[in-house]
Design a protein that fits this description.
Largest sheet: 5 strands, mixed
Pfam families: Metallophos
Structural class: alpha/beta
InterPro entries: Calcineurin-like_PHP, Metallo-depent_PP-like, Ser/Thr-sp_prot-phosphatase
Distance between the termini: 26 Å
Helix content: 25-40%
Organism: Streptomyces pimonensis
Protein name: Serine/threonine protein phosphatase
């Protein structure tokens, strides 16, 4: 199994998270708008996008940014032994306060925001930034928890979401034209269109970029196949989990704008497990990579259930989400509770019912 930055108990137990070896590309600033509002961007028409590409047409209203939780890491000298319970977290999209509250509710963080779950295992399913007020604060928290959990004998790991690819692309390539399959496009325009926040870009640092670029795309844990997007596009990148993760990382390392765009576009596809043929699509992934159930984020549960049709923030009162959504003949578990549309940020222990 390949490992990304801060991805396992082997992480060095120090109080700092900044002593990474940084590849040369992350020092390139890349152009990005200083004050452009997403509404000022003129993207290609919605009909022009390739099938399965589902950009958000408008940002949601931005709530005031709360203070990022800052806690000094004090690693335990002797970690606990044995595997603890397994938890997964759905899409966060910059909602740091909601994330901290959800983790505390599950007993994973104490009142000071520090890891208190011992040998528990925690997986984030991707999409840490965009649309919400503090994406960088979310990444900082996940990086810190990776060190704290490892020091306690557990772990905190994360998967690559399409918004990590989008933010990396916007930083690296800016307004460089890419072949979108429907004429020219740019990562910068797509990032703004999909809820990119200037405050996140302003605070984005080298260690954030390297951490995102080294995230795994797929993992299997306790019979659960974990991935971000509800798509079969992962099959395009390898016939094993290790091959998919290596291929994604190599694509990012080559630093080719068109290649990264194609990766982003494929990871943005959704709904492969919904409707007729959805269970067969799930089985195609399980048969290839292993596991008995897929656990994913990406598509908000209100989308999957048909409760709402867009992330435009105009639904009064927000959708009612009480927990994960099990579908596709019971083979898929959706974890995006729709926090960006006033839904719920989900943190769930697996297996369900445990």
């Amino acid at each position: 199994m390949t490992q990304g930055a801060g991805q396992g108990p082997e992480v060095e137990r120090t109080a700092t998270l900044r002593d990474f070896r940084v590849p040369a590309y992350v020092h390139e600033t890349g152009p990005y708008a200083q004050s452009t509002h997403p509404g000022d961007v003129v993207p290609p028409s919605e009909e022009a996008y390739p099938e399965g590409y589902t950009p958000t047409q408008r940002d949601l209203p931005i709530i005031n940014r709360g203070d990022t939780v800052q806690v000094t890491v004090d690693p335990a000298s002797v970690p606990a032994t044995g595997q603890g319970p397994l938890y997964v977290v759905g899409d966060v999209h910059g909602y740091l306060d909601e994330l901290v509250a959800a983790l505390q509710e599950q007993g994973l963080l104490d009142s000071a925001g520090q890891w208190c779950a011992g040998t528990a295992r925690l997986w984030f399913l991707g999409d840490f930034t965009d649309r919400g007020p503090d994406g960088i604060g979310v990444i900082d928290l996940v990086m810190r928890l990776s060190a704290e959990a490892a020091a306690a004998g557990g772990y905190c790991k994360a998967l690559m979401g399409n918004h990590e690819l989008l933010l990396l692309g916007a930083k690296r390539f800016g307004d460089t034209p890419v072949n979108s399959g429907a004429g020219t496009a740019t990562f910068q325009a797509a990032w703004l269109l999909n809820g990119g926040q200037k405050t996140d870009m302003d605070r984005l640092q080298d260690h954030h970029l390297q951490w995102m670029a080294r995230l795994d795309a797929v993992e299997a844990v306790d019979g659960h196949l974990l991935l971000h997007s509800d798509t079969t596009a992962y099959l395009d990148y390898g016939r094993s989990i290790e091959e998919v993760n290596d291929t994604v990382r190599e694509t990012l390392t080559r630093n080719d704008a068109d290649e990264v765009w194609d990766l982003f576009r494929k990871f943005t596809k959704r709904f492969s497990f919904r409707d007729e043929g959805g269970a067969d699509a799930v089985r195609s992934l399980l048969d290839t990579y292993g596991g008995t159930r897929i656990v994913h984020g990406h598509s908000p549960i209100p989308y999957l259930t048909g409760e709402v049709g867009s992330e435009d923030g105009e639904e009064e009162g927000g959708p009612v989400v009480t927990g994960p959504h099990v579908y596709a003949d019971g083979l898929a578990i959706a974890m995006d509770g729709g926090v960006t549309m006033a839904g719920k940020l989900l943190v769930q222990q697996l297996p369900l019912g445990s």
